[in-house]
Amino acid sequence: MKSRDQLAPENLMLSDYLCFAVYSANLAFGKAYKPILEELGLTYPQYIAIIALWEEDNQTVSGLGAKLFLESNTLTPMLKKLEAMGYVERQRDPGDERQVRISLTKSGRRLREKALKMNPVDTGLASDEFAKVQASVVTLRNNLIKSVRNDE
Question: Which residue windows are coiled coil (predicted)?
Answer without folding.
Answer: none
